Amino acid sequence: MTVTTTATPLHALNTRRSVKFLRGPAPKPDELEQILQAAMSAPDHGALRPWRFVVIQGEAIGKLADVALEAVKRSGDPRMTPEKEKSVREWMAGVPLFIAVAQKIAHDNTKIPEHEQLLATGCSVMNILNAVHMLGYGAFWSTGVGTYVEDVQNALGLDALDYRFLGYLAIGTPACAVPPANRPNFRDFVTEWTGPV
């Protein structure tokens, strides 16, 4: 495995990037525990802990491919051509670990807006992505493979009445060299407020 150099926490944050093409090995069980525990440190208004994760590995990945791709085809999505299906199956077969991500809908909550719960779940995913990178692996957040098809969500045990399904994290060892990302300068996105306009 090619371990990414993350000399300092800030260096790790600034060098993380999405890596779609992955292979084994996946994080070891103790590393996966550390990665998932990092998700628990996300900011979370009201301590609702809305994030939910489903770990998919080994033979279950092939089963997920079967379920998800058949459901996408049944949904009538014209993008799922035979060529696309073949490509997706090949990609999934190379990835050693998937984590499905969902936000649990707090039906009885009247205090914390749902968009804040969604943001908390997104923050938990960012913690996972950073932890994966800091441990020398690669990851990719995918909303393909049936994320917006209810049958797929239900097959994962995430009833659409109670969960908002947000896709999958594909995790493993980068299959090729990963060049640095060309990041924009933060100054293009920041202003300083000194009083009413």
From TrEMBL:
Its EC number is 1.-.-.-. GO terms for molecular function: oxidoreductase activity. Belongs to the nitroreductase family. Its cofactor is FMN. This is Putative NAD(P)H nitroreductase. Binds 1 FMN per subunit. It comes from Achromobacter pestifer. It comes from the Bacteria. Pfam families: Nitroreductase (PF00881). Gene3D superfamilies: NADH Oxidase (3.40.109.10). Keywords: Flavoprotein, FMN, NAD, NADP, Oxidoreductase. Residues 15-172 form the Nitroreductase domain. PANTHER family: NAD(P)H NITROREDUCTASE YDJA-RELATED. SUPFAM superfamilies: FMN-dependent nitroreductase-like (SSF55469). FMN binds at R16, R17, S18, H45, W141, S142, T143.
